[in-house]
């Protein structure tokens, strides 16, 4: 998948690169996501954000216009994302909900989400969509590390 990761800190770069293993086309930038930096998302399927990136309805609309279909937040919380507007726009949202909050653990969770989406699968417990879903299978996430 083609993805751009915003708000990347120096200590996150290596972990993301190792977890990715050159599977996905990742662009890592230190800038936060906003209307001035959204141009980095053009042509990408996925945007990866941190809890410091505020994704309101207007920014989500611009992301959709840029071609973004999915968003991964490198956080447990999704308070910084308008989930209802994302749902209305057809943008899927995932977080990184597992206990390992180290840079390595978060990077692995982020790439796991990309791997599952890339293989047409549900991200299970990481799914943050507001609709009820019959597809979620928590065991799939624990056992599936397919790249």
UniProtKB/TrEMBL annotation:
Q: Which keywords fit this entry according to its UniProt record?
A: NAD
Q: Which InterPro entries match?
A: D-isomer_2_OHA_DH_cat_dom, D-LDH-like
Superkingdom is: Bacteria
Q: Name one GO molecular function term.
A: NAD binding
Instruction: Provide an example Pfam family for this protein.
Output: 2-Hacid_dh
Q: Which SUPFAM superfamilies match?
A: Formate/glycerate dehydrogenase catalytic domain-like
Which residues fall in a coiled-coil region? none
Locate the D-isomer specific 2-hydroxyacid dehydrogenase catalytic domain: which residues? 8-98
| Tagged with keyword NAD | yes
The record, for PANTHER family, names: 2-HYDROXYACID DEHYDROGENASE HOMOLOG 1-RELATED
This chain belongs to the protein called Lactate dehydrogenase
Traced from the root, the source organism's taxonomic lineage reads: Bacteria, Pseudomonadati, Bacteroidota, Sphingobacteriia, Sphingobacteriales
């Amino acid at each position: 998948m083609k993805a751009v990761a915003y708000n990347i800190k120096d200590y996150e770069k290596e972990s993301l690169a190792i977890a990715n293993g050159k599977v996905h086309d990742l662009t890592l930038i230190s800038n936060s996501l906003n209307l001035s930096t959204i141009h980095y998302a053009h042509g990408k399927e996925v945007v990866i954000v941190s809890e410091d990136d505020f994704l309101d309805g207007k920014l989500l609309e611009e992301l959709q216009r840029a071609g973004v279909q999915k968003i991964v937040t490198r956080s447990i919380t999704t308070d910084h994302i308008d989930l209802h507007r994302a749902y209305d726009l057809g943008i899927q949202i995932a977080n990184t909900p597992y206990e390992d909050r180290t840079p390595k653990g978060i990077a692995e969770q982020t790439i796991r989400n990309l791997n599952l989406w890339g293989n047409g699968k549900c991200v299970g417990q990481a799914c943050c969509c507001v609709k009820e879903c019959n597809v979620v299978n928590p065991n799939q996430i624990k056992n599936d590390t397919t790249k």
